[in-house]
Amino acid sequence: MKNEAAMILQSGDTSDSTREAPLTDTTPLRLPCPDVIDAASRREPLDVRAQRLFASLPYAYRLSVTRQRFPHVLNRIAAEWGAPMRFLELMDELLMDRRGNREGFPFDSVLELTNLREYYLNEVQVGLRKRLEARRSPW
């Protein structure tokens, strides 16, 4: 099954790489098969910067689900970790669909990313939240 998923990814044919989810309205929802996600994650391993970041995070914030299934996301997070505004923009981009064409992350990954964002604001960049709120406030 995993070899089939890899062949589908290489060929670009996604007709068999999704399965139908139960319909809740008239619009069908197509979800990626876990085999396709896992095959995709093996194409881009964690880079050195992401490995260091992952190892330095407290255990509760290590993004274990996101790291396993979406290592490219952890690579992007690590690339922006030292630039607070770019990091927050990236996190907002990951957590909120502004283009209308994203499928979104599994719930576990959303929780991990949200918790990491809060950790960053509260522990890594202490005071950043207050500075951002002060910029927005007309008072």
- Distance separating the two termini: 59 Å
Structural class assignment: mainly alpha
Number of helices in the DSSP assignment: 8
In what order do the strands lie side by side in the largest sheet?
1-2
The 3D shape can be described as globular
Largest sheet geometry: 2 strands, antiparallel
Provide mean pLDDT, rounded.
75
Tally of strands: 2
Contiguous runs where pLDDT drops below 50 for at least 5 residues: 1-33
The quaternary structure here is: single chain
Number of domains: 2
Order of helices and strands: HEEHHHHHHH
* Binned strand content: under 5%
Into which percent range does the helicity of residues fall? 55-70%
Rounded radius of gyration (Å): 18 Å
